[in-house]
Amino acid sequence: MEKTLRSAPSWVGNSLLAVAVFASCWTASVLYWRSSGATPSGMAIGQLLLGLPVAILLALWLGNNAMRSRKAAAPIAQPAVADTGAPRAALPAIAAGAVRLRGGESLEELAESLLSNAAPCELDIELTDDAGYPVLSGRIESADDPSAREVMTPWLALRGMAELSFSDEQWRALSLGGAVVAELTEHALMHPLLPDYLAAGPSERAAVGLPLLQLRAVLPAGWPLRQRQAAADWFLHLVEQQGWPAQRLQLAASDEAAFSLVNVLVRATGLTLLVACDSYVGEDSVRDWSERRILFSGRTPRGQVPGEGAAGLLLADAVQAPLLELDGMAALQGACDGQRPVSADAPGNINTEMLSGLSRHALHDSMTEPAAITAICADADLRPTRVGELMGVASALLPHLELATQMMSVGACCGTVGAVGPVAALALAGHDALANGGEVLCLSNSDSHYRCALLVRRA
């Protein structure tokens, strides 16, 4: 069935795109009206059920035509992008990936959910906006597990941080992040030099050559510094507790003012365990977003849906990748990123120029023809600006793709999850490249300004 869909004519993809846009707008509007019990006015019905999807499709069509015209006028021109200051050859390989999202607690489950739309965000009976109506959220039931709090609290006391308190949302994020760390540590423990290192005497261990495992924890910038430091130390403790020797374990410094996936990748040497976790599923975030008018509702259809989750990658450089006895690895190439000059949240600002330029740059650097791309993995959520931008890039650069079966965006099932989104998208791209043996373009456009593109293929 998948082969039949992928070989269908282009009008099928355009029809599916139109259906998807109308369905998303209608579903969100109907859910809100049903939850509020209010009868929408004729103007509201026209704006949300007809005007909004038509505006999105029109923006996509105009962007597509503009990009095609520009490409025809300058077919070999390469766009200017932000200089990461790192050689492309420094990129590591993905040895393993892990996710905890509403769409799935494994990459296989997440891919299946996204392609079948099996786990969309739903009305949350525990969270209400300032008008008392339920809000859409990407709640994960397993995040309610109290074991993380029960185990971490006495550990904090032993470390002299008994007075340090975390909110319910932070505990949810830590629970999900700890699960991802534990899963990826199991893969790291398969390193063939680990048994020899553990069996050797203290004076002989240096000669074994076991690499330094670096843990890089990407935690929400809104958390106080002490809480971020304690959470990172806790994840490091979990890795050591599972069996990786403390002498070959290090916490990588996170000194970026803003998260950059490319910067994280080019700094990954030896073995790197990257984990990101976040949660906005709680009364504090909903109240804050409602006051700032950025919470998705009938009044703010361009708002955000509170989400939560965790995602991680086990990265191996050119020396360590051949040593790991895993099923396969995904190579990363052409990574580049940049900052939009104007926020994507500005009214009427569906602009594909930055993301299209980065995509072309990634394809050029990886010596890949656009026709060779078999899938897109992204972190875009259901906001019209993000959907419009992503669809515009896909239709302009990769018109051969059937977006219903060859594009997966993690934000569609989990809402807003901060840095978890791009890490999860990259993990999903690695999974797709290994499972289907194709060339996958990974894109990040969930942030208001940050944009990233890179190519993922089987190593």
UniProtKB/TrEMBL annotation:
TM region(s), chain numbering: 12-33, 45-63
Keyword Transmembrane helix: yes
Keywords, ordered alphabetically: Membrane, Transmembrane, Transmembrane helix
Domain of life: Bacteria
Name of the protein described by the UniProt record: Beta-ketoacyl synthase N-terminal domain-containing protein
